[in-house]
Amino acid sequence: MSSFQQTVVYDALTTEPDQLSRYVDESICDPTYTIQPPVYPTLLPADSADAGCECNYGTIWLDVFLLMEATASMQFGIYGATEYVVVALLKLTIGQEEQYQTRFGVIRYATEVQLIADLDTYNSTEDLYDLDIETYDDLGTNIEGALKMATDRFKSSVHRIAARPVVIIVGNSYRSGAYNDPSQAAAGFREDGGIIITIEYVQEHGLEVPYLRSLASPNYNLTNEKNDGTRLVVYDLRDLLCKANCFCRKNWLEYNLDKWNAPQGGCYYPVSIPDTQPLAQQACRRNHNSTLTLVEDSAKNSFLTSIFPLKTEFWLGLTNDGGGWKWQGGYSINQAMEAVPICSSIQDLGMLERRRGRN
Fold it and tell me: Is the pLDDT of residue 81 over 60?
């Protein structure tokens, strides 16, 4: 059968060897927050209904570069802009661990580009208090050079392969000059899975920077000049870092993407191997650090069944304890579903079958 996956640590069920030949199946598995190296950050707890991408600031797991405009026009604003980013990061755990911490680097740019701090510089959140970025005495804005420098550092050993690369570009101007347009470099970074957050830090009597926001990932642009009269607050940046922290590893299928392309419905990976449900659960856990999927509603049921050819059977995280069908975690079908999928039993195993004309 085929499988999908959700990451969790649990005791796998076992099956007697003489029973293995009685079942031939495929399984479905789906990911959670419990992660062990070298796995990628994942999403949904297997013992509850789909809660989407919940965020804990203290365990955000990203590699982030701040690209700070350091032109003469930022002379009176660079301190406030730097302080805004630092205060936003104080709720995160800055450090060098492989998991559950954020690595943070700093690049300043004008016509020239300079690496101020690499991703392996800061060992604690408190280290950020000492961040001081000086301005250049020119007006050039070589964003492309800053992006390329960040991209090169993401390709080096200071970047963790399991951490999503993020750049935060802060500026109040853009001027063409003896450097390339940054749009191509920005597009390449986004296409490779990176997130670009832009912050238009408009100075008093200054102008908005629409070009800057064009470099951002969809809905990842912030400004201190809001049309609704509200102020830019640190939560705005923290929230975008939470969104960036919610993503699927390569080759996994995303479900229910929000406007930040965060998979609020989870990440799924079909596995086509002959297995019983207990062995499917074990394969999900051992090979993909995940678990058999849950089905919370009819929309998710349709999503899962659309992945396989007609009349394909696959395993879900559903069992019958003698008192009724239960999802992993012990809650009943009715607590987790709007519409019950077609289920049949092979002893105590839950199985969903897609047939023409049926959901």
Answer: yes
